[in-house]
Amino acid sequence: MIKVKECGEPLVDIKKLCPDLVIDLGSRRMKKEKTAYLRKTVAEMVCKAKSHLPKGMTFVINDAWRPQYVQERIFQGFAKRFSIKEAEKYVAPFEGRRVSGHMAGAAVDLRLWKNGRKIPMKSSKLTYQENAKSFQPKLPAYIQKNRQIMFNVLQKAGLSNFPKEYWHWSYGDVWWARRKKKKIAIYGVVKKN
Bridge-partner residues for 170, per DSSP? Predict the structure, then answer.
């Protein structure tokens, strides 16, 4: 069992560390939250990864730290769309020992951005589940190349990918610890005012 030994590192506004990132938390959240927050080390890792992207390219942050009510809403939305069993494959719990790394400020959902738009990372010919897989051989070569660009810089910066979601990267949470075979996670749930 993975233990959480909270290190107390604060959440930071990622735009202050890396101003040329694009933040797109969705219209409902952007009304309340104007930016994205991550633990300081995780934000620095994203900035480091961004510095290794090809010229003119950046990341669009689709999610970072999220409060419990958002995690619960996401889970319920997936359960309605698919089933509870299927939702549990793609959405971490909003309470308990294995909560989402987003609630710890340790996880970030992102994609590549260039020339004012998202770079293609999925195919309209595949299902949600097929597109979500990090390594999907059914994708066209150009999309696989786009993913490889993103994966290379994020891994080089020290972030770890959740294999069922190409866009989900983390460091220091229980899910990261599980993937990295660590006994201790350094980030627990953060309740932000």
Answer: 107, 160
